[in-house]
Design goal:
alpha/beta; Polyamine Oxidase, Chain A, domain 2; five-stranded parallel beta sheet; globular; five-stranded antiparallel beta sheet; 410 residues
Length: 410
């Protein structure tokens, strides 16, 4: 048997695992097929333009990710932290001025909602608290909202957008239990848990690349452009293997036992306008159209005049050509920003298997392969497939491997 630990995949899960192993005194070797670290949240170059392969929103409740970011030396200003503030082009706003449940109650009280909806939403949240944010049997988010009368503006502007953003799954099929975990940690967590944390650097620089530098400073190795097609080639060289690739890539590495999942896409349309073009806020919501959220990259990353339109989960847009999607995004923005010029260029990034479909029971698959431990956002027992879930799974996998090696050495 070989020595050391190999990690296949340098995304958020793989690099979280690598950093955790280093902390345990183990020097891992990370194999990444792509030219940059990050996996499904990375920097890409398309037609000579360097952009992210998607626009991500972090929340203050992402405790493991922020812990590791701080550990590997990511600067605090790498994200723009804003107290919970959901703003829409049409004027609706849900703004929390205080942390925790007090801030949420303030936000509901001051939002432009009918009094009946405000009272209904408070009863809904209290019912969730009394139940410990747990369901006896998982149902869809739409069913949960129906049971508690969460329709009207509160459903339109708050619960359904929160579900689609966090779970990347439509409410009529999304897991209510996973949704409740998000509500619990983000809206009822400690100070700062409900903050929106918007990346101000590209997704590779946000954590994976600083993590890779940290690992290499401590004796590990990160091999970019190194594709692993057969785990047998690693078994003789390494005592343990952590496979931290997307679930759709498992069949090539573990053809005999790879689980099967359904997937949901995320489309991001970048529109480059004149440099003076800007939004009233770094992030704004949109309703009744294709685009759900639009981000001002100039305010966030210094890419002045560049707007990023996000379309989460499945929909009819998947049948459109990229040029048609870009035209639709521009048209929707132009209706809200009358002086908006034509874009200089547009790029559509389609991550067709961005996440697994976060449906009831979707994470019930378990896989045990001797000497192999899996890591990935699709494996967290509680969280929907987010960067926090990926980070947690990487830490968990590395801890299991380090414990096993320590026990064998004892």
């Amino acid at each position: 048997m070989g020595h050391g630990v190999a990690i296949v995949g340098a995304g958020y899960a793989g690099m979280a695992a690598a950093v955790t192993l280093v902390l345990r005194g183990i020097r891992p070797t990370v194999f990444e097929s792509g030219p940059v670290a990050g996996g499904r949240a990375r920097r890409v170059v398309t037609q000579g333009v360097e952009i992210d392969n998607g626009q991500h929103i972090l929340v203050g409740a992402y405790s493991e990710l922020f812990r590791l970011m701080h550990l590997v030396g990511v600067a605090g200003d790498a994200v723009l932290r804003l107290p919970l503030d959901l703003r829409y082009f049409d004027g609706f706003r849900l703004r929390a001025r205080f942390p925790g449940s007090l801030g949420l109650l303030y936000a509901l009280a001051t939002a432009a909602l009918p009094v009946a909806e405000k009272l209904s939403s408070v009863r809904f949240l209290r019912a969730l608290q009394r139940a410990g944010f747990a369901l006896e049997e998982d149902v869809t988010v739409e069913e949960l909202l129906h049971r508690h009368g969460q329709h009207g503006k509160i459903g339109r502007y708050v619960w359904r957008p929160l579900c689609v953003s966090a779970l990347n799954t439509p409410t009529d099929t999304a897991s209510a239990q996973a949704f409740l975990v998000v509500v619990r940690d983000a809206l009822f967590g400690g100070p700062g848990a409900s903050d929106l944390a918007l990346p101000r650097v590209d997704l590779s620089k946000l954590f994976p690349e600083p993590a890779a530098a940290y690992v290499e400073r401590h004796g590990g190795e990160v091999r970019l452009g190194s594709t692993v097609r057969d785990l047998d080639a690693l078994r003789g060289k390494y005592a343990r293997i952590i496979v931290a690739v997307g679930p759709h890539q498992l069949k090539g590495l573990l053809p005999a036992g790879a689980p099967s999942y359904s997937y949901q896409p995320i489309y991001t349309c970048y529109l480059q306008y004149e440099q003076a073009t800007r939004l009233p806020a770094p992030m704004l919501g949109m309703v009744d159209g294709l685009v759900q959220w639009v981000f001002d990259r100039g305010a966030l990353t210094g890419e002045h005049g560049r707007l990023a339109c996000v379309i989460s989960a499945q929909g009819g847009h998947q049948e459109l050509e990229h040029d048609a999607i870009a035209q639709r995004c521009h048209a929707e923005l132009a209706r809200l920003l009358p002086q908006l010029p034509q874009p200089r260029w547009a790029r559509v990034i389609a991550e067709k298997r961005a996440t697994i479909a976060c449906t009831p029971g979707a994470k019930s698959v378990r896989l045990e392969v001797p000497g192999v431990t899996l890591a990935g956002d699709y494996l967290d027992p509680e969280y929907p497939p987010t960067l926090e879930a990926a980070t947690r799974s990487g830490v968990r996998a590395a801890t299991q491997v380090a414990d096993a090696l320590q026990n064998e050495a004892a």
